[in-house]
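Replying to the earlier thread about multi-chain prediction with a worked example.

Input:
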Amino acid sequence: MTGGNGIAARLRTITERVLSGSATVFVLLGLILVVISVLNPKFLEPGSLMLFIKKAAPLVLLAIGQYFVIVSGEFDLSVGSLVGAQVVIAALLINGVESATVPVILGMFVGGALIGLVNGLVTTLLKVPSIIATLGMMLVLYGAIRWLTGGAPTGALSESFRVAGRQGIDGVPVIGQIPWALLIMVALGIGAGFLMRSSWGRTLVAVGDNERAATFAGARAWWVKTSAFILSGLLATAAGILLGGYAGVTAQVGQGLEFTAITAVVLGGVVLGGGRGWVVAAMAGALTVEALFRLFTQLNLPSTIRPTAQGLIIIAAVAYAAVDRARRQRTPTTIGTPRHSDVAS
Amino acid sequence: MNALTPSRRSPGMSTTTIVYLALVAILVIGAVLVSMSGRNLFSNANIVDLLTRSSLLGFIAIGQTLVILCRSLDLSVGYVMALSSLIAATTMDGQVSRIPIAMAAALGVAAVIGLVNGVVVTKLKVNAFIATLGMGLIIKGYLDTNYAGPAGDVPEAFQSFGYTRIGPIPLSTIVMFAVAAAGIWFLHRSRTGHHMYAVGGDAEVARMSGVRTDRTVITAHVLCALLAGVAGLLIASRFGTGSAGVYDDGYDLESIAAVVLGGTYLLGGRGGIGGTVGGVLILATLDSVFNTLSVDPFIKDVLRGTIIIAAVAVYARRSLSGAPTRRRFPERPPEPDIPGQPGDTPTHSETGAGGRP
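Result:
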């Protein structure tokens, strides 16, 4: 981007982006938040909003990780079980001992990266479709949880482990408390945004769009994809730390999160199969899913009917976005405009 | 690349051979391991257990094969199975005279769900992963809200579907093999079957060649849901009631694993039901061996996951080396190394159209 018309061009591309594929999610998120606050004005109070953020943060982190993988054309079905295994193992190892917290957290990140590395190498070098590779990993990790817990997890997380998920900077005027979860979420979101603007990010999208073309153009597709899986493992670890801190340890923690994370990413207009989508929209997708859960609570829906509403909304939103995209692709002016060229030009 | 290799009449033959060789190997190794622990893998009870397990997963996996061949996917099969078992059991309500109408109701609802899946995937262009996952969630909500536990009452006469045996072979297994045979005939001899391979191979090319691609994919989804409905009938007849809880048993993902283990290409267009049945038998045999040896569930899942990944890795190498496959449009090379995901028609057709003269 050149200096002269930089800001104007950037504003234009941002508007274009928001109005294009990812518009649905922002409209939907706004709509749901408005409905919630109409039903319950107290929702807009800072404390209540911050509580919402604390609860949503783990899913947002998972959505960032899943975004990297999905935009490169793959799936990561192992993140839910990875979160579960990490939390259960952490509780077992820490067992309430404060001094064990930092080494265990470091170990968790190493473990998460290793799981991601294995997922990535099995997918890229052994050429196993990622849906099967990560499904296998999911089986292994759920097996590990069952084996370690025998139904009920043992041990306990230390207080300092739970700081990230539960606490924040207290005494802030007006807001009261800024949760660490919010800061972590924003920091990682900004990091992910910059990463996607780096050459690594652009290669990732190119590989997701057309791996063969990207390879001919000199991209090391296998490494870019593997690093996306590693990032997904690291972000799942971070999500596990927040979730364990916020909600505590059960054998069920993390169960089904992989599908919720994929739902969030897809709701954010990221196309399964790779090649297009915006990481910020994926994060908004995660917030939308959480807001949806919150709305169901507000409406006093029996918890059992929630999946039905969730399923209907996902299908409707994705169908809307798909039809919208198909319509857009037919107009000749946008055909030659790749989604990410704005950064390069 | 010459597609009209000598194995034209039996496409995927060599993959299927590998699957059954692997099955024999696993049976032999399993039998040796089990006999070392002083038991017999081929005891009557074990064989009945193994075959019953196979028939349940088999029905679902045969249907899953059809949708995967079309480059689609069905994650709602477990929920359809639970729903149809409940519809059947509550409609029968213990009366023999209501068996036909109960079966019709259960299968009818299943078919309608398949129809909706297919229409959402083809007409609304929702990725199959999301469409069927969403459908699964919708059914789950309905089931959880309306059925707290098992419901309905299945008369003795219908329970015979689940318990009748000819020698050690359960009736349900025979029905499953018959369905598999019909499916193989359907794929290899019927026009719609050929269209399924064509659509899975390249939807855009198939469409330009005059195949009604949407209709083909919808047919596959309807058949898949119908077979999940049959699995539900089997559940009802074995349990004596309908059961909502079966959707938690992971049949959706396991059926996909069986299909892929059976050599069907996850991106569509290659493979078949013969291999899938082999994949189902392998998974059931592994389960049976693990249970007889009372293997720790942890090790069991690790082994199962590893075996699935290893098997698929073997196939991946094969397809890269240009093994004989059923290629409907030989002038266009397949794209084994483009790891798009199933149902990814927009991007795929886009790049496909751009790359063609």
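The domain at 21-318 of chain B is CATH 1.10.3470 (ABC transporter involved in vitamin B12 uptake, BtuC).

Feel free to reuse this layout for your own posts.
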